[in-house]
Amino acid sequence: MTSPVEHARLANAIRALSMDAVEQAKSGHPGLPMGAADIATVLFSRFLKFDAADPRWPDRDRFVLSAGHGSMLIYSLLHLTGNTDVTLDEIKRFRQLGSKTPGHPENFITSGVETTTGPLGQGIATAVGMALGERMLNAQFGDDLVDHYTYVLASDGDLMEGVSQEAIALAGHLRLNRLIVLFDDNGISIDGPLSLADSVDQLKRFEAAGWATVRVDGHDPQAIADAISAARNSEYPTLIACRTTIGYGAPNKAGTSKAHGEPLGAEELGGAKQRLGWQYGAFEIPEDIRSAWLAIGERGRATREAWQARLAAMDAELREEFSRRITGTPLAGLDEAVARLKRELVETAPTLATRKASETALAVLTEAVPELALGSADLTPSNNTRTKNLAAVSAGNYGGRYIHYGIREHGMAAAMNGLSLHGGFIPAGGTFLVFADYARPAMRLAALMGTQAIYVMTHDSIGLGEDGPTHQPVEHLASLRSMPNMRVFRPADAVETLECWQLALERRDGPTVLALTRQNLPAQRTAFTDWNMCATGAYELAAAEGEAVVSLFASGSEVEIAVAAQSLLAERGIAARVVSVPSLDLFLAQPEDVRRDVIGNARIKVAVEAAVRFGWDAVIGPDGIFVGMSGFGASAPYKELYKHFGITAEAVVEHVLARHTA
Ligand SMILES: Cc1ncc(C[n+]2csc(CCOP(=O)(O)OP(=O)(O)O)c2C)c(N)n1
């Protein structure tokens, strides 16, 4: 147990470094680190299981700074505990290009940062996935290997964001009792006091969601420690509301929004140091405090070594499987399983909706990929994400691999990030493609962080029919394709669906959307290829007879239309080829020679997709013919809609004839 004096000095080291770094950068947020320094000091010095020498040790406790704007809090902690990424020089380079201390914490830049935060609400929602991952992996590998807590430091803003409601409801429902949220309850946000815009009783809100709650003085180390001790033994996830003063120590700005997001200024900074009894220069940490913090960073070494010894003593098969899961190494045998099913599919040539084809693929893939954890935001029977072999996860019962996320698309996508970041799982979650918008902020973070998350997004166009324009995505493909590092697949039949699943599973450095149909589609691929034809995003599905005058490009359900148009054109003596484009974004990322080769030089280029044109000009050129949507859809049986919006083989032929004879 640290003495009160020592505690204060440890916490003041965080405050001083944070003030100095923000001052030097001339930008940043000193208020949160100064206010939450006591909470963080108690957590790190007395509870957090970690070893600064091995920030990726799998059984470490996770610490998520959900309020990412307070990044200097975590950088100070990492630096002081001896993380080798965050040297004093890096602290001095806070927010500068190429530093390990970017404006908001980025998990792919700084070791010890568990997840990228900054968009408020994401951290707490991601942490729910981490806490779930911990329990699910524990159910499979036992207490000896997986036995840790997930701690979150969340601000008012985190709790005001809607996604926090989805997240806490899910955590409460699943009784994720190893999730502990420390709420920096300072009553201040950017505009001023919280009372300007909020009067929620957070404790009651969390209680209603099935959490244990407690309120403490966030500057009383013993009270914080007692609350954390109780939370660790609770049957429920716990919210610890820690009443704090933003900018604690600053003589004039403490307790006001002026401390939130700008340097204190030399005078205020000097005054704060004086008040805190911190008589050291900028970036100066006295030796006794430095060694006390370094000792905290080493506190977990023996625990880590004991864990490693247990791992080494494990049954070899279990040990290897655990290591494989944690390192994200594919299980040998995936290729073979895919090839076997592909052979079957080319032989039987089934007419299937691609959502159904996805289910068929999953029956095989869930066996070949035990780390695949599926789920849906309450659309299981529509998304076809649950195969017979998948048991559901429920409170106290984490051995299953199917997660009923509830009608919480955003919470689901954030939890999927957490599952992926935790390690040991490849999460795949379903909803309708149109509701990608409800999940988008977390999907964007997945793309930024490079988490492996797979979104099974069915009902991917007007082809869903009667539910009408609210449910019919038109701009979603384009908008998702425009997101850096997001991969979007829209397979045309059962074989392509299987191939796209394979590519999504093999893609370890980023997320994938699988856009799948509600309506049936005929088989297009009836010859076996060992090669995954979808791997370059586009390929010639049907060659022209003779030299092509027309190239028809299409994705998903519209490949059928392109193929029918090819026949109709052939009847009129016009040679056309069909290029299937399961992933426009992947195709556009190919080297120029590959693109040129697939695009070809037929005089007339046509793209068919029941969505907006945006993006297709890169293939068909500004003078290409686009057969698709230019506005919202409508409610009707889908075949009528295709006719109504002119997305038919006949319409394609008409457009081509008009151009051909022009
Ligand atoms: C989704 C999202 N919206 C807006 C912001 C901009 N922003 C950064 S911090 C903040 C609010 C600060 O209030 P609080 O969360 O209480 O943090 P504190 O002032 O205590 O540091 C806002 C609106 C953001 N980072 N994320």
3D architecture notes:
The chain is of the alpha/beta class. The protein contains 26 helices and 18 strands. The strands form four sheets. It has a six-stranded parallel β-sheet, with helices on both faces. Strands 1-2-3-5-4 form a five-stranded parallel β-sheet, sandwiched between helices. A five-stranded mixed β-sheet has the order 14-16-15-17-18, covered by helices on one side. Thiamine diphosphate (TPP) is lined by residues 29, 31-32, 67, 69-70, 118-120, 155-157, 161, 184, 186, 188-190, 246, 260.
Topology:
Blueprint: H1 4-25, H2 31-47, E1 62-65, H3 71-81, H4 88-92, H5 122-141, E2 150-155, H6 156-160, H7 162-173, E3 179-185, H8 202-208, E4 212-217, H9 221-232, E5 238-243, H10 266-276, H11 287-298, H12 301-313, H13 316-327, H14 334-348, E6 352-353, H15 354-368, E7 372-376, H16 380-383, E8 402-404, H17 409-422, E9 426-432, H18 436-449, E10 454-458, H19 476-481, E11 487-489, H20 494-506, E12 512-515, E13 520-521, E14 539-542, E15 550-554, H21 558-571, E16 576-580, H22 584-588, H23 592-599, E17 604-609, H24 617-620, E18 625-628, H25 638-644, H26 649-660
Parallel strand pairs: 1-2, 2-3, 3-5, 4-5, 7-8, 7-9, 9-10, 10-12, 11-12, 15-16, 15-17, 17-18
Antiparallel strand pairs: 6-13, 14-16
Helix pairs in contact: 1-2, 1-3, 1-10, 2-3, 2-9, 5-7, 5-17, 7-17, 14-15, 14-20, 15-20, 17-18, 21-26
The chain binds thiamine diphosphate (TPP).
